[in-house]
Amino acid sequence: MKEKLEQLKAKLASELNAAVDAQALENLRVGYLGKKGSITGLLKEMKNLSNEEKKNFGMMVNELKQQAAESIAKRSQELKELEIKKEIELMPEFDLTIPTKDDRGSYHPITLVQRECERIFTTMGFNVEDYPEVVTDYECFEAVNVPKNHPARDMQDTYYLENGELLKSQTSAAQNAILRKYGPQLKEKGMPIRAIFPGRCFRNEATDATHENTFFQMEGVMVDKNISISNLIYFMKTMLSEVFQKDIKVRLRPGFFPFVEPGFELDISCLICGGDEGCPSCNHSGWLELCPCGMIHPEVLKEGGIDPEEYTGFAFGLGLTRLAMMKYGIKDIRDLNSGSLKVMSQFTDDK
Amino acid sequence: MFLSMNWIKDFVDLSGLDELSLINQFSLSTAEVENDIQFKGKDISGIVVAEIKSVENHPESKKLHLLKVDIGADELIDVVCGAPNVRVGMKTAFAKVGAKIGEIEIAPRPLAGYMSHGMCCSEKEIGISDDHSGIMEITDDVVLGTDIKDIYAIDDIVFEVDNKSLTNRPDLWSHYGIAREFAAIAKRPLKALDLADLSVYESLPKVDMKIEDPLCQRYSCLQFENISRNIAPVDMRIRLFYCGMRAINFLADMTNYLMLEMGQPMHAFDSRKVENIRIKRFDHDFTFQTLDGVERKIDTDTLMICNGDTPVAIAGIMGGLDSEIVEDTHTLTLESATFDATSIRKSTVRLSHRTDASMRYEKSLDPELTVAAIARFVYLLKQYDDGIKVVSALTDEIAYQYPEVTLSFDKAYVDRYTGIEIDNDTIVSTLERLGFTVSVSGDDFTVNVPSWRATKDVTIKADIIEEITRIYGYDNFEIHTATAPLFPTRPEPCKKDEDNIKDILVKRYALHELHSYVWNYADELKEIGIANIGEIKLMNATNPNIETIRKTMIPTQLCQVKSNIGYAPEFGIFEVGRVVSGMTDDNLCIENKILGITLYKKGMNVRELYFKLKGIIEVLADELKHKPVSFEKIEAQYDYEHPTNLNAILIGGKVIGKIGIVHPVVGKKIDKRASIVFAELDVDKFAEIANNSIVYSEPSKFPGIDVDLSFLTSKFAPIKKAIENAGCELIKAVEVIDIYEDADNSSIAVRLTFIDNTRTLKREEVTAVTDGIVAELEKDGIRLKG
């Protein structure tokens, strides 16, 4: 009997090594340890033995049984490890130079620039306003002190509609409504009026690489007690430095716009040469003309229901279209309204 | 407008100052100076006065002459010259050997077989006129050999000011006005103009003149005789040329010179043609020939200068050909007048004819100028032609006077507006240099605005702030932030929704945002078979192709799809734009802010594309409003809409848009082998919908039961209805897990998920519910599959 035991032990050892997958191992387990397994079979053969022998032999069989179970489990673990190893070995190295194709949408570049500006202004306490494109003569001109016979009202500049309304030629068309909307809070709660209103504007002119009849502006106003020219310069410098992500020098020149007094043309130091040297992009002047601004004309405040003796304010008009072209190096303004996906799909995002 | 520093310096002494930095300061304090400042005379040197002593024809050339010229040296100089106007005894400008003209240095050189030791120059070669018809003729009495720069003011700095930056400053359309600015900037005194005393002619007869129309504000005139001079002095011609005007003849040059110097346009008539000057409009249209020879149509709004009833000039714009000074003109009448600015501007627009004079009148000229300009004219005329004779008294009628402008303010006002400290003395001296009269009492100022600033430019005290600060210099401002109490900013719902919509469409659905125009492009629409529909048109579109304001976004997007079909086999575009959907009772436009989405995909599986779009709408509604969307079949309204599957989009029972398929006629014109679907959403209406917040429900701790049911039908609606009718609260989810369709059969498989939060469900109670649903559907003839 003992030999038989030893033989089984030896046979198991060699068969274990030969078992190379989970199924073979399971067969082996059943073959030795199952109900009809050969080790289990040994116990059946014990009935011919004496009690003493039974006891001894029984112990030995149990020991063998335990050893067998352990070695099968060990072999199982080995096989699992082998399998993982094999799987790792089988994994090919990827060629990362193969381009990945993933459909991405795109924003219009004006949206990207507009959002960036809105973000900056919102952090400075400005409200972002929305305004229609069709406005009345009153909103666009009369309310912002553009007198009846001002050249800006001439037919060749403004698109008039058959009913006498017009497509707004400037975002200032929203000024009166904004002043009226926030004026009460200014007077009752001392909340300064701080608002920007981005929007589409229209001018009746021939288009070419630098002229469009449809373009975007962003108007901003701030009104409070004691808002000064000094505040205006500070604000424009701070805001533009944030827009262009560098320290910008600004300079003001007198400029005539009926809705402001005094009115200014604001130049910024050239973004390419920094303003000291002069370069082709600033026409060797060191400065780029960027946006008109000024102290809101007393008549405009008055028309907006605000007493110009008590309150002062500034206003500015940023050309979003111009800004987008500067930022992305777009040379032809007509590309922006071209509706061409070859052009527009490039502007995936710009955060 | 071009400006000569020499001319400016006639009126203000700038010696010892850097002229270039003054010009730069002028740009920052007054009006924009264009970039390229010209240094006149810089390119020429070594040109002297020479006299031609002999002229011989070149033996082989018809054009060339062999000259001997005298430049006051010991020997005469041999020169070969091609100019036609050479003659013995003529004095001319001569470039000696070693002289420089631009890049060229004059050296002795052979010319057609003869050595030429220098060059006789035309005025164009010296750069003082565009006359190149012959060499310059010097008639002035000067010593031979003198450098011409010592005789004539050829060296000059000329800069250009952007006309647009002068629109509100009638006083700056003249050298004298500009000189006043330089005087203020440089803090130097402004010299008074030398004027003739016109009172000495008081006893002479007046001109018969009468203003018969209030559009003429003031008319002044004077008559002269005996003008012998024909050509203007060289220095005058140089200044005119440098400032962009051609020399014509002495009288015309004088009126132009006066206009550039004082800003007052003037006109000289042949007195025989203006025996009784009347200024008026006509009650009928007629044609009138201006002195440039052009026949112009005059209407009843155009102010005319007339001789009795015969028009002789378009007021403020241009004289007539018939009343021009001619060779046998003996007496001339000089006009110096002011007209209503708006009337002149509108006339120039109607006539499409803008002149140097009308440009100035448009700006509201100072009526005080008219007489001063005549006095200056007489003064200069006598300098250059002492034989002239004034034959009338100054005749002057004032029909309109601007009110005098007096403004009062205090120091606190200046402080508040500027935000910096500018002391009282600076305020006073700045204003006085600019011609304002100032009286101060403590911190209170009273300012009288000079006539040349009072026509429209300076009318309120904020205007005074500009005068003080621009001369103070904005670069000198100390800048500081404003302080304000803190308040939260709230985004407008419409803006917020618009931003979020864009993010979802771009980030989640990879759509592309495009911009388009607010009007229809009629030709592009025609190409794809869409009518040009709109509620209103532009009144003054220069291009009839773009006159209709769009009523819906989709036609524009279909044009965009067509132009992009080569871009990719599948893409989607969107725009948040405006349309005019109708008119109010008051005939005002109803403008809507619309989100338009159009999806394009190669292949004919339009259903898949349609459901993708439906899904997009549902996600927008769910993410931004946490509300479900429903759809209702509607009739096609436009020619690009497929009559089938056109649905209104509803949220909470409110229609906010529509979704549909492109009509096959239009679709085929865009791409025969593609599917195109579209949706429109009114962003403002969408924004008005309240946002339900997320309703959180705790997941059940007990397992649920899923039941899959497959029905033989192609319609989900009755199934949905039957499930709803079952009214079982345990049904927590209904999912369509399969749709099968072939020629004979169609089926829809749904999965119902039953969950109870308090207990484990029993199979029987679930089956009872599903059996009920199956039974109800069977009544409608919808049976379970298999």
Largest sheet of chain B: 7 strands, mixed
Record the strand order, biggest sheet of chain A: 1-4-5-9-8-7-6
| First-last Cα distance of chain A | 82 Å
The run of helices and strands of chain A is: HHHHHEEHEHEEHEEEHEHH
CATH superfamily of the largest domain in chain A: Bira Bifunctional Protein, Domain 2
Mean pLDDT across all amino acids of chain A: 90
By CATH reckoning, the class of the largest domain in chain A would read Alpha Beta
**Rg over alpha carbons of chain A:** 42 Å
CATH topology assignment of the largest domain in chain B = Phenylalanyl-tRNA Synthetase, Chain B, domain 3
Q: Considering DSSP H and I runs of 4 or more, what fraction of the residues of chain A is helical?
A: 40-55%
CATH architecture of the largest domain in chain B: 3-Layer(bba) Sandwich
**CATH C-level category of the largest domain in chain B:** Alpha Beta
CATH superfamily of the largest domain in chain B: Phenylalanyl-trna Synthetase, Chain B, domain 3
CATH topology tier name of the largest domain in chain A: BirA Bifunctional Protein, domain 2
**How many β-strand runs of chain A?**
9
Oligomer: heterodimer
* Sequence of strands across the biggest β-sheet of chain B: 27-28-29-33-32-31-30
| Poorly predicted regions of chain A | none
Instruction: Using the alpha-carbon principal axes, give the shape of chain B.
Output: elongated
Q: Which structural class best describes the helix and strand composition of chain A?
A: alpha+beta
